[in-house]
From TrEMBL:
<protein>
    <submittedName>
        <fullName>Ectonucleoside triphosphate diphosphohydrolase 6-like</fullName>
    </submittedName>
</protein>
<dbReference type="GO" id="GO:0005794">
    <property type="term" value="C:Golgi apparatus"/>
</dbReference>
<dbReference type="InterPro" id="IPR000407">
    <property type="entry name" value="GDA1_CD39_NTPase"/>
</dbReference>
<dbReference type="Pfam" id="PF01150">
    <property type="entry name" value="GDA1_CD39"/>
</dbReference>
<keyword id="KW-0378">Hydrolase</keyword>
<dbReference type="GO" id="GO:0016787">
    <property type="term" value="F:hydrolase activity"/>
</dbReference>
<comment type="similarity">
    <text>Belongs to the GDA1/CD39 NTPase family.</text>
</comment>
Amino acid sequence: MRFPKLAFIFMFVGCLVVYLTYVKRHYDDSKPPVSDQLPQHKMDTHKQSTSAQVVSENFQYGIMLDAGSTGTRIHIFKFQIEPNEAPKLAHETFRAIQPGLSAYADDPEKSKEGLLELLKVAKDTVPDRLWSSSPLMLRATAGLRLLPGEKATILLDKVREPLVAKQTFTINPLTVTYGYYLGLGLMSTRLAVLGGFEGQPLAGPQELVSPCLAPDYSGQWEHAEVLYTLKGQKAGEPIYETCLTKVEKMIYKRVRKIEGVKDMDFYAFSYYYDRAVDLGLIDESTGGTVRVSDYIEGAKKVCNNMSAGGIKESPFLCLDLTYISVLLQELDFPPDKELKLARQINNVETSWALGATFYCIESLHKHGTC
């Protein structure tokens, strides 16, 4: 009777070894390829994956190049597509290089090297068969916007070459677009409300006087490599009302209302999140929910506190909150509309790049174009 038992044990161990070998090989085959590390650029790599189980092979990739002032970042989003459902993020591959594209304003040809490096990451990540259906977008932020018009145009022409070249990445050229933020970012808004002009420093002393600052405030602020001296207007004028008028004039006719905003759920992040933390409306680490009216009332409270001589908060808090409340209302958000504030959604960092790519993917499936 001993022999059959030993045979059974050996058979069991043998099957277990074969099974573990198969699992390991399957796991190794399923891991995404790792792109070569090139020494020419300082680089950061980060990959994220949602916790949701992906059960479908029906995927769509979207690639976003974020051309910022300090570096260029590529986001490669993998979406799970199911019939009659919104796309679900399954995975994100992220890579960043330095410096930003604006550093090549005087030698545009050198901008290609870094972009080719980022495109190689995209080629290594996206399966060959999906290259032609994966939209590739580039969005330029303040670094390029602040360049003189001719330099920006020449640089973008050079940037476009590797993006549409078939030998580097096969895409539909119509999906390669360039977007300039409309001066509605927080830093650009501050400058405009304070009375400055982006890309056009004042002649002589860079001094700005604004009703959105405390009457007795005097300080310095640097933006786009220009150092400004800031001062508040004379005491006695109502800060909130005067600042509100200034912000409304700045934003007038620069945004369009969002259709159906009352019936949709919205997440907000970036400075919406930070200012809500400043007001004590949400926990800094966990986020939370606020109403548009919270920003409105917060702006009034902070601005009036400065009028009374209290400037314990950031000197820009009155301006920032007034701007946020006006922008949301111009977009047609009613005062009682709730906003969800989060730094992560399903373990993925919230960012404009994800939102813009998600919108493009949805538009592709609904209308055939971004």
